[in-house]
Amino acid sequence: MTVAPMKKGRGKKKKGQKKTADIPGASAEASSPAPIAFKERALGLLRQNPVKEFSVDEMSKELGIHRSVVIMQMGKLVKSSHVEKVPSGGYRMNGNLRQMPVAAAAV
Predict the structure, then answer these.
(1) Helices 35-48/67-79 angle, 10° precision
(2) What DSSP assignment string belongs to 60-107?
(3) pLDDT digits (tens, 9 = 90+) for 36-58
(4) What CA–CA distance (Å, rounded) separates 64 from 32?
(5) pLDDT above 70: residue 25
(6) Alpha carbons 98 and 51: distance in angstroms, whole number
(7) What pLDDT is stored for residue 104 in this prediction?
(8) Which of the 8 DSSP states describes residue 16?
């Protein structure tokens, strides 16, 4: 006779731990923003400060997002060439995106 393996940690809660549904104002949805919302917020922050290099901790604090999420999502933005990773470990706008359009001279 074979015994099915037990599922680890699913459906069980620790003694005294409340379910999410038992906590007022809490939802079962993830508390981190969707990747698209992160992209818009992060690029907005970088556009406001186009020459500044932001560390992971600075971005985490400014955006109100855990640093591990910032690291993961910024890696995706680097891969898509929206953002550059600088040797110090921080991030800044890609040089091509950093250039602001020159306003037409008034005649």
Answers:
(1) 80
(2) HHHHT--HHHHHHHHHHHHHTTSEEE-TTS-EEE-HHHHPPPPPPPP-
(3) 788 899 999 999 988 899 999 99
(4) 9
(5) no
(6) 8
(7) 38
(8) T
Locate the domains of the chain by residue range: 33-94
* Residue 31 to residue 65: CA distance in whole angstroms: 9
* CATH topology for the 33-94 domain: Arc Repressor Mutant, subunit A (1.10.10)
Instruction: State how far the Cα of 82 lies from the Cα of 63, in Å rounded to an integer.
Output: 17
- One-letter amino acid of 79: K
Quick count: other Cβ atoms within 10 Å of Cβ 67?
A: 14
**Do the Cβ atoms of 33 and 65 come closer than 8 Å?**
yes
Structure tokens at 85: 């990773």
Other residues' Cβ atoms within 10 Å of the Cβ of residue 90 = 17
Contacts of 75 (CB under 8 A, 6+ apart): none
3-state secondary structure of 54: strand
Greatest CA separation for the chain: 90
